[in-house]
Amino acid sequence: MWSMAHIDGRLLWAERLTVSYRASGRPALDDVSLDISAGSIHGLLGRNGAGKSTLMHALLGMARLDSGRVGRSPGVRVGWCAQKLVIDWFLGVHDNVLLGARLRGLTGRSARRAADEALDAVGLSDKAPRDPEELSGGEQQRLMLARTLAFDPDVYILDEPFVGLDALVKRGLMGVLRERSTRGSAVLVSSHELDVVEHDVDHITLLDGGRRAFSGDRGAFIARFVPMDTVRLVFDRPVTADDEAGVAGSRLGGANALEVEVPSGSPIPDLLSMAASLGGVIDVVRTASTLGDAVEAAYDRMGAGEGR
Predict the structure, then answer these.
(1) Predicted pLDDT at 5
(2) What domains, with CATH codes, occur in the chain?
């Protein structure tokens, strides 16, 4: 069932979705809710089989719902880049992308310009005259992304978009998505390549066995699953037992260093005062947990039955 109300800046949302596999009747999604808001880059994470693609299909109206509903704000256009190749093999590379621009409502020179810009964004400008079958697998993936960019939707739904792309193209694509989000578009991206999305996602939804294990902002996700940062105090001399005793909770981090765990993102003025009182501290290095660290910790917890 579709709802068409606009609430609190949301462009697209799911309310308590349950979707079952037809053959077995086993739930692929079980009571999952999700909000996608204007200007956000939303990371959809989970192991293979967690339900990420099924949730995306449900948001697109491509999955039969057992219960729940999907809502979309009036006039919102949704663009999809599938994990599997969806290419019009009877059209050339440029015309495939031009199709996206025309679906957006552009014609003539404006449509061609949008197609050219999208091809340039994914590094395929030189392949524009070719046919899709002449492209490599990674280039075909980029072709699908270019068509979605030319469509320029209000909501991008991207299922593993970085598979088969080289590092430079991944960074460039993420930059384009970031720029579009600053203009008000929303991005929902499923990816196992956490190093690519590490610094750009601002919201995380984690699925586990078809259920929502977490939904919240990136900082809250990291703090939930990896709640501590490591602060390393480096001395200009060997560390003594008195040094270790003078910094509560510290441990040796080598002959000339102490390490202390502190709550993620918290200020550390007391620790710095203690370090200054010891004398000889020449460097303080704080190592914050990454999104990848948090995902790894979350998977460990879910494997032990502690994730929900």
Answers:
(1) 43
(2) 2-222 (3.40.50.300), 228-288 (3.30.70.1560)
Residues 6+ apart with CB under 8 A from 202: 40, 41, 42, 217, 218
Residue count (the chain):
308
Residue type, 173: L
Sign of CA dihedral 81, 85, 90, 96: positive
Q: How many other C-beta atoms lie within 10 A of the C-beta of residue 169? A: 20
| Residue 243 one-letter amino acid | D
Segment 288-304, tens digit of pLDDT? 888 999 999 999 888 76
User: Can you name the residues that pair with 283 across neighbouring β-strands?
Assistant: 234
Tell me the C-alpha distance between 64 and 297, whole Å. Answer: 33
Q: What type of residue sits at position 15?
A: E
What six digits make up the tokens of 115?
């197609």
Angle at 141 between CA 138 and CA 146, to 5 degrees: 125
In the chain, DSSP finds a helix count (H) and a strand count (E) of: 10, 14
- Asked if the model's pLDDT at residue 46 lies above 90, the reply is yes
CB count, 10 Å around CB of 304? 8
Token pair, residue 10, equals 């949301």
> Is the pLDDT at 3 greater than 90, yes or no?
no
Say which DSSP state 156 is in: E
Cβ–Cβ < 8 Å for 267, 183: no
**Is the distance from CB of 81 to CB of 157 less than 8 angstroms?**
yes
The pTM is what?
0.84
